[in-house]
Specification:
By secondary structure, the chain is of the alpha+beta class. Helix content is 48%, strand content 14%. It contains 32 helices and 23 strands. Strands 1, 2, 3, 4, 5, 6, 7, 8, 9, 10, 11 and 12 form a 12-stranded mixed beta sheet that branches. Strands 19-20-18-21-15-14-22-13-23 form a 9-stranded mixed beta sheet. The chain has a two-stranded antiparallel sheet with strand order 16-17. The radius of gyration is 40 Å and the shape is flat.
Length: 1017
Amino acid sequence: MRTPARGDGGGEPADGGEPGDGSRSDGSTPPYGGHNSAPTDNGERGPAGSGGPPGRTGPRARRPARTVAPWVRTRLRTAPGAAAAMAVLVVLTAYLAAAFPRSVETYETNGLRHDIRTATAGERVLAVTTAASGPGVPQAKREEGLRGTWVAQTQRRIIRNLPAPVRADEGSSAYGVRNSEAVEGTDPWLPAPDNLPPRFTLAAQAGLDRHSTLREGRFPRADGAVTARTGEVEAAVTAETAESLRIKVGSVVHVPGVDRDDVGVRITGIVAPRDPDNSYWSFEPTLGSPALVADQTVPLIPPPRYWRASILLAPDAAPVLLGTTGEPEVYWRIAPDTTSLTAHDAPRLASRIASLENGPELAELRTDVVGPAAVVATRLDEVVAAHRSMRTAIAPVVAVAALGIGAVAAVVLVMAGGLTAARRQAELALLRSRGGSLRGIGGRLLAETAVIAVPAAGVGLLLAVLTVPQTRLLPAVAAASGAALLACAALPVRAVVRHRRPLPHGGREDLVRARPSRRRTMAELTLLALAVGAVVALRRRGTGGPADAGSATGANPGSGGVGDVDYLVSAAPVLVGLIAALVLVRLYPLPLRLAGRPAGRLRGAVGFLSLARAGRASSSGALPLLALLVALTTAAFGGSVLAGIDGARERAAVLATGADARISLVGQAPVLPEGLAAAVRDSTTVDEVAAVRIEYGVSLPSDSKGFRTSLGVTMIGVEPQAYARLARQTGLGEFSADTLKSVGGGGVRDGGSDRNRVLPALASPAVAERLGDRPRDIQSTAGDFKVRVAEIRRTTPASPGNDYLVVNAADLTQRAPTTLLVTGAKLDGAALRRTVAGFDGTSGERSAGGFTVKLRTEERKAFVNTPMQEGAERIYAAAIAAGAGYALLALLLSLSQTAPERVALLARLRTMGLTTRQGRQLLGLEVLPQALLAAVGGALVGWATVVLLAPGVDLVRLALTATSDVSLDGAPLRADAWSLVLPAVGVLALAGAVSVVQAWWAGRQGSINELRAGESR
């Protein structure tokens, strides 16, 4: 057969079909929609498509001939199922790509808003204060500067001048005038515990009627012009203040005046706050409820106490404060509005707050709005810094999941393009042999794919915008565009690379034709160097990026954006999986070929054929193996992260209680009633009870290296056997019971305490360093004795997280227990509280003088997720699910690519006497080596990745919040067995199921269709 020259029309169709009929005898589509000419290098058609006789001139001669069937439309009509499948894959990939940055920004934004909303009023409110004008200012002007009109106008000007993104929540903001120093109430009828009169804050705060409900009387008002010489003004108090200080409507409270008689404050109303947690009330604690305060200036133990309360004046009555002993100050408490705040605003917000506290914004505020004495104080910058710190800690860990799933999705898209290129290899080879240019073929394949991928990516982007609203659009557009670009480029690039030179027809497709080239070897070595560098970097500095280095030097924490993530480090699991895939693809044919030799000597051809075919598999199997390994590695890493978070919270719950339940009394070493331990032990859900005596603040002598003379620690008296079992069960400082062997005598000698007995002790590292190696004297309410440190443990169940000293309770003079540590697999908290309540008549709840019952399960539930932690966990869970889905697609694409050739082989073997059962066995055994390789290799690579990266990953910030009462030294990443085994087993099961279905389908088809004359497979 003559090979047509470039641009040659070729005359009649080579396949014997009718010209332009759009079909071939083998069912494939003729090149360029049935047109008889091939594209030249410049994209123009040859003479066969000129549209008329060569000699004709005029408009009809210059008009190009209409294409019989356009390329794109013809290809879509020929394979609508493949086009629909590709569209679904692109929609899914584009959706995940676009939803990821939007989801991250959503949970970061919700986290910032949550942190600000849940902060105390003293932390989140911007307090602007200024002192009243000094004595040099005319009295009338001083009084005018305190009236409600000027203060309200200034409030509006402050809000207007706030720099973006700082915005005010006017409903929670407050402003007014108060005395900066509390004034004493001089009336004898006021309660005075310890003979100290109450002290009041007089606050003329606006908006009392909007933020409170009137219980009795009426709201205060200022009749006439109130001045510094006014003798009596009206005020209101809250219901709690009225009850505690015995104030009623009509009562008059007198406070000292300056150069005048006492100022009378008549109570006209008693109010109740509508929202006590609103910063209007909660910024100043005594505004809503009074408090007993210890007077630390009096040298008595305990110090005397007095009542501290607030009295609410009318806004226009503020000038009367000039006549009191308290220094009046004007204040504006601006509560931040978080409704329009986003995580992207966090760096700017921190900068603006710093400028308001001590910068250009403060200078402008002093010059144009308030006055030269204005001061801005807030702890909102600390809240924002804590949020940014957590964001910086979480972002790199989340990036590991994102890069893992992104790599798997990219591989699957490339595999989809490769599958299409393999199915159309004969068609593309024919185009090249007939003079088709690489540019022309690539362009048409690109257009064909773009028609499917671009609208599908748009649909995926739209779905992401609808499901994850109210975030920036540009990152999602860029991510979806990247997915669309990869989907469009996979097929044409694969085809162009494959057909750089015309390929011979009829070659075998199941052989590795050549050894790996030098370019491939250098590429693999480069990837190996990158993976090793990433793993070493991660082990040395953790998952944090450049922001960690900045925070270590005292710089501001990162914004959680791109600058906070070292993507090379976060891609370490992907790179490790990539190197493992390349190594395994090179090595795995060798043992299969070796195993095929003895298999050839066995009876039956199934085993030998399956091993021979698996050993001769083409190197194209690197892509599906890479997808499976990266998916399994990402699933193992993500599952280990989730398991590590849960484990860290479990340990924090154990540290909070020291056992499954903890029963104690409030106070300084209170003794539990007799019989309580036995009653608790008899409960049906209780396994064991360890009764311990805990004494806090025991002074220790200093050793020869002492830093100071004494150190107060927690001393614990225990029963060694029970306490050792408890320590072993909880994993908190396991030790041998023989370590605390009793010295005998019960701590008594000649009727008194034996001070010379030396007790073996279990100590924390700090206490052991303090005591040294010699016996040391201990003085406590439990007795006086000497101790020698026998063993050192970092923590212990009775006092986790604190410095402690554990001795045998039998050697103490006073050994009555103060705490019960209870263990049980399924403790009934209600039953425990009922048992405890029977000994003191209380309900068992936490109350002064009552019992405290803490359950480990309840403490565990208290560790709730913040929006950032919950969002990160959801992304990891979604990454695991998406990885499983893409692994399934990779396996299906891999098997689909070889399905026609395997079915044809099965048909040939049936003509030679292969039974249906043997055919199923052959297909299953042929798939088994690669599936087993992917499953075992994925589990091993996942385990190795977790082990390699664990030293650089700390899950404390993902497990606990910064305000948690329990602190962990660390929460290292550990491999989770279920995350390693389950995905691997799933791969094996899926591969077996696919092979069974394929064998069943091949059995239903006749051999005639697969063995047609002239069929090339």
